[in-house]
Amino acid sequence: MEELLETEAVLIDTLNGYIKAQEERLATLRKNVEDYAREHEEASRNIQQYLSNPINAYLLVKRLTTDWKRVEELITQDVGKSFVANITSSRSDLKFPTDEDLNGAAVALMRLQDTYKLETAQVARGVLNGVQYSTGLTASDCFELGRQSYHNRDYYHTVLWMQEAMDRLQEEQNATTTSKPDILEYLAFSTYMQGNVARALSMTNELLELVPTHERALGNRAYYQKEIQSKASQSKKKRGEDGQDDTAVPAQHFTVAEERVKTLDEMTERERYEMLCRGEVTIPPEVQKNLKCRYVDRGIPFLKIAPFKEEEAYLDPRIVVYHNVIYDDEIETIKRMAQPRFKRATVQNYKTGALEIANYRISKSAWLQEHEHKHVAAVSRRVEHMTSMTVDTAEELQVVNYGIGGHYEPHFDFARKEETNAFKSLGTGNRIATVLYYMSDVEQGGGTVFTAINIALWPKKGSAAFWYNLKPNGEGDFKTRHAACPVLTGSKWVANKWLHERGQEFLRPCTLENQTTDEADVRH
């Protein structure tokens, strides 16, 4: 996004240059008009006397020949061509978003709206979770959001944003390029697609009052009317026409029951995920009372002087957070090295093992090797002190940046049994554990949530989360299913270090039982 701001700055300079050139051209034309008007006014006072002067006669002819040709050149001169040509030649150096980027930005905003239950009117006013972050959206802005949703066949959000565009249109009056008929066309059809045919017909009639010859609206009106008539005829069908008794059915009495709130266990994973992201789920007291904080030295001499600050987030599976384990200078180095290498983050195809992009993971990532900088090496090697395991067989340090709306839906870090090709090329076995460094604070959103055990970790710059993905017997721990919540405001930077099975045989010995606690976990 920073590159887009740089592009916008270049465009602003270009537009200012274009406006200045146009103003100079118009100033010249204005001076010519004034000269013509002055001479014409003088001639009009006494035409015969004026024309009897040979100099005046010459100047009149000159004004209407040579001078006028220059005026014509100024009028027809397209000063914009050179500016557009300059921009075109600079396109290789400038970053321009594509239509796909626009659609992605719109989808990200819808994702935030759904996950954090943001009211459309509040978002349109630049208010996110009660905080005013920016100026509001115009009717045209809201219309474009609705149009993008429409192209994605997301008629629910199309209706929300087209209705907001309509409200904005009434407030802005003539200060917009968006028209009421345009909004009504999208709004009517999307309302129909949501099942409200009568409302769609009403909107279509309103559209035809404004544009009586609108072809699509005329066709849609006939279709909606036919569908309403069909439903009406079916509802009027009397009992007995199908051979059944038409005896009146006695009135039935119903009681209105209060809607029961679902428990977490009754909710879908998606519902739990969104509640966790909103911070609406708390750890039960019976679980929280057993969680501890401690200083950990792992028997390492240096850590006896400066032990790790370990905070237990959960016990089964054991998830801990280490505080102040990555430093500002290391973070800045890692971010600086990663930025030029950033690419759209990928996921592994569970059938082929190939890396591919997916809509359920929206972020940018890059990989850094230890030999590239002492800070990368220090951060990677520090994992050994935190986990008492080796990083010799670990993956490179993966740096990830989640921008606005960036997220990673519920997933496992380990490869399941059916994912036979996952990590095959590495030859180091499955991902036994994860260390997740948080390299930034996030103003709103961006939590790491575990949907099977209903806990959330919130980004805190300098901290790191650690958990085992595999049980001591090598089986995957399905309770470690987790997700990265969408970033509502701010930017989230993390670094992943995934440790693999090979090389850990004597550091974390296998067991036959699915025990949940390792001796190494509590050594301090």
UniProtKB/TrEMBL annotation:
Cofactor(s) needed by this chain: L-ascorbate
One Pfam family per UniProt: 2OG-FeII_Oxy_3
Record EC number: 1.14.11.2
UniProt keyword Endoplasmic reticulum present: yes
Any one Gene Ontology molecular-function term assigned to this protein's record: procollagen-proline 4-dioxygenase activity
Region (Disordered) residue spans: 229-251
Major subcellular site: endoplasmic reticulum
Residue stretches in coiled coil: 12-53
GO cellular component: endoplasmic reticulum lumen
Boundaries of every Fe2OG dioxygenase domain copy: 393-501
Subcellular location: Endoplasmic reticulum lumen
Keywords: Coiled coil, Dioxygenase, Endoplasmic reticulum, Glycoprotein, Iron, Metal-binding, Oxidoreductase, Vitamin C
PANTHER family with a match to the protein in the record: PROLYL 4-HYDROXYLASE ALPHA SUBUNIT, PROLYL 4-HYDROXYLASE SUBUNIT ALPHA-2
Similarity remark: Belongs to the P4HA family.
Biological role: Catalyzes the post-translational formation of 4-hydroxyproline in -Xaa-Pro-Gly- sequences in collagens and other proteins.
Name listed for the protein in its UniProt record: procollagen-proline 4-dioxygenase
Native organism taxonomy: Eukaryota, Metazoa, Ecdysozoa, Arthropoda, Hexapoda
